[in-house]
Write a structure and sequence with these properties.
This protein has 187 residues and is α+β, with helices and mostly antiparallel strands. The protein is built from four helices and seven strands.
Length: 187
């Protein structure tokens, strides 16, 4: 009996730690989403950076097989120049392009998608956002959905459920106990 109680206590502690970690993760995602939304809509910053890092969801297959559609790329800005072979993200009109540098001429970079036959127009160094330093495969679709009104509502509901999970569980237990007591199962 004593052993069972210890196991239950350990499971409760593990569950609380897990819920806390998931809550922190969801809160961080929510804060980052709000920061990105405020930066984009109020400050007209199309690619907000946090500590020199930005992220972008890939929408074309021009970098296949290295980077696929719906991958999230992590971009790091750097002061010194970029080298041939590095993958960069740069501003092109009203959009952003993530391609590999294939040549450097004077103050311009020549980039090309791995799946493309021809290079892009020269890219001025001031248009380069940064170098791709990482990617998370396929998560772009999920993150994109969480930026929709329905996705934001679902994220808030999940966040509130996680934050109040102890209260919800206590309420359910109390309700079950009251019902059982009413039915005469517990004295």
């Amino acid at each position: 009996m004593d052993r069972t109680l210890k196991k239950k206590k350990i499971l409760k502690i593990v569950a609380k730690i897990f819920i806390s970690l998931v809550s922190i993760f969801v809160i961080m995602l929510f804060i980052l989403g709000v920061y990105n939304a405020i930066s984009k809509f109020f400050f007209k910053n199309p690619m907000p950076k946090i500590f020199g890092y930005a992220s972008a969801i890939v929408t074309s297959g021009s970098m296949e097989p290295e980077i696929s559609v719906d991958d999230l790329v992590i971009i790091k800005s750097q002061e010194q120049g970029y080298k041939v072979g590095e993958i960069i993200t740069y501003k092109h009109g009203n959009s952003f392009v993530t391609h590999r540098i294939v040549d450097i001429s004077e103050e311009n970079y020549i980039a090309q998608g791995d799946a493309n036959n021809t290079p892009d127009d020269p890219v001025a160094s001031e248009n380069v956002i940064g170098k791709v330093v990482g990617k998370i495969e396929g998560i772009g679709k999920v993150l994109g959905w969480f930026q929709t009104p329905v996705g934001i509502a679902v994220a808030l509901i999940i966040l509130l459920a996680l934050l109040f999970s102890d209260s919800i569980v206590a309420w359910i237990k109390k309700s079950i106990k009251a019902r059982n007591k009413k039915e005469g199962k517990i004295k």
